[in-house]
């Protein structure tokens, strides 16, 4: 691949202060300790996809519906029986990730002069791609990158390693790498694999009031000019473990290593979640538990070993695969059906609350809390402990296991993996108020309880609706 060698001695800052037409997100940068950007949930008031006509509970039900679609897409990642068996290449892994049921967004700025765009942030895919246009006669609309206007845009040759990392690539007459990306929902995107300078603005530095603008040259990304299907954002930033992901590219081209973390704020709070890179991704809070990544059929996904689930003195072991994907893009947690059935039976005996019907029959265990005081509800819910490989124990509090899906109805935020979708997934409700760190160099994932709303600097958001506080227990 023909590339210009550019010095990358400065630490990167990923994320920008978006203009008002996007979402008002803010990026944070430190000196020597990595950097952080806001991780915006699609239903957050900062998000352009926030629908103010929906109630808080309707947004939760929407997330549950999207979770089902997301689990179906991740299903091909069910894993081998041997923990140490060599895994196949990550080629093509991203083609199994649907574009529609996304949950989180982040900002990127590309080109010289720069264009600011809002992209899906996806821990279940690798490729960075952005909407592009090659129309020389019409000014590009908002959210579309025009490479002809950029002096730093480049094309990737067919014989490059980046091109070979794609599952479905071909050569143009000029020997440039053309790709076709097909998603699980039938959507497709295609264009030319390209390189570009990504510029990251320091909006609110933690340790300095000085604004800074950092530039990263020759980032591999897909310049997409043809889409089939509906893509609700300006592109997608892959945060998976494959060769073309942002995490891998940062690790290969800078000194910050291949590691990142996030701290997810519970639904309904008017504070932003944080997405961290470099040393800031280190999880050092008290109670941190580290488990190793295990090999799976698709290395893009972050897969760990689930040894058992414990409630009090009861313990339940998976009957099928012991693997579970840690995924920020899936709302619910999905478990082996036999384990979930046993878990539901145990919880039903322990929780002394009246049963309720599940809205739309989406969830298996629901309770009527309409006449129960808020503090009493939480006190009646037991902790659920996930025993992971290497002795790591991750405790799910009430807010990680249950969610209020409509006024007066609380449900277990877990569902059964099926024959059609035979994969276990640790979803984002289970990860709320946890600092979750991924280290691809050490091949580990670390979990620690954290108050995500106060532990990380955030920009004040508009006040939530009164019912938002009831979304989580």
From TrEMBL:
CDD domains to which the protein is assigned, alphabetical: pepsin_A_like_plant
Annotated keywords: Aspartyl protease, Glycoprotein, Hydrolase, Protease, Signal
Catalytic center residues: 122, 327
InterPro entries referenced in this protein's UniProt entry, alphabetically: Aspartic_peptidase_A1, Pepsin-like_plant, PEPTIDASE_A1, Peptidase_aspartic_dom_sf, Plant_Aspart_Prot_A1, TAXi_C, TAXi_N
Protein's UniProt keywords contain Protease: yes
GO function terms (MF aspect): aspartic-type endopeptidase activity
Record's signal peptide: 1-27
Record region (Disordered): 75-94
Residue span, Peptidase A1 domain: 104-448
GO CC aspect terms: extracellular region
Annotated GO biological process: proteolysis
Keyword Protease attributed: yes
Pfam families assigned to the protein according to its UniProt record, in alphabetical order: TAXi_C, TAXi_N
Gene3D superfamilies: Acid Proteases
Similarity field: Belongs to the peptidase A1 family.
Name this polypeptide is given: Peptidase A1 domain-containing protein
